[in-house]
Amino acid sequence: MSKSLLIISRQPPWAGPSAREALDIALAGGAFDLPLAMLFLDDGVFQLAPAQQPSALQQKDLGANLQALPLFGVESLYASARSLQERGLDQQTLTLAVEVLDDAALIALIDRYDQVITL
Amino acid sequence: MKFAIALFAPPHAPSSRRALRFAQAALAGGHEIVRLFFYQDAVHNASSNVVSAQDELDIPGEWRDLVRQQQLDGVVCIAAALRRGILNEQEAQRYERRTGNLDAPWELSGLGQLHEAAQTVDRLVCFGGP
Amino acid sequence: MATLHVLSHSPFSDSRLSSCLRLLGPADGLLLCGDAVYALQPGTAQRQALDLMPAAIGLFALDEDLCARALAAPPRVQVVDYPGFVELSCRFDKVNSWL
Predict the structure, then answer these.
(1) Which of A20, A48, B5, C26 is least buried, going by the fewest C-beta atoms within 10 A?
(2) pTM of structure
(3) Chain A residues within 8 A of B116 when measuring between CB atoms
(4) Could you check whether the bond before residue B105 is cis, i.e. omega within 30 degrees of 0?
(5) Chain A contact for B81, CB < 8 A?
């Protein structure tokens, strides 16, 4: 039986390659059909903010790659309710279909996974 | 126990030295290291071109020695490496760069190697940041 | 499953400690290394937050980082060396480093 992996993405979208490189770990695992989940925490929730224009920074559209997660079989996607609320983000306007969890539910989520990478 | 160690920080970051000391302690304790995987800025730990002052630690050199002496599988993520200018001879030729700067014992490969290691081991331990 | 969380950033300039403290499970452990050992600095809110963690949560610090910074570990903190760090990674079910 495969070991499950939770990837916690904490970096904002345009702070260098970090957000993209976290996503790449998830997409690579999805391509191998591994049981994976992704959690957007702290500034990572900014990756899900609406109406972003990466072309203004001559960056590739991270959002488009995030949309690929379900296509790669990574359907367990979560965001921290606290992180969203702290940053004034409305759950209803996020660009990715994520389950929004409070801290107690996040503790249970982390506990469920065999391995975690937080970057 | 079987370990996979993933490093995300460059050689001058304290976490690189910490990962190295952890790896040494794990081996000394009789554990197995299935793979070292270098991602993000950690790819610089595999560079052949890092020049350390005589009175400073040579972290890339220590990693290289550890991998050779213990015959470890030392994998560097190719996408992260290319983006940061770490290329072996093959990639240097492919991209028409003057020379490569990554040599044996390091292998360039994909994130699949990180996942494969994670599936195989008892513990995946990541190091990065300060 | 019990998780060993590992922090290495200074808690005064970084939010990882406060985020981590909110996500600790009842049987989890927290290992402070690198600049994260500054969280043990007496007379700080960060130190107080650690003191207030439930007793069941194991609190650990890497010896070399305490020594380098001339920090003393309070009684509740178990100071470990690298073999101790390896042992912790085996004792807990998984390791979550806040990179």
Answers:
(1) C26
(2) 0.97
(3) 32
(4) yes
(5) no
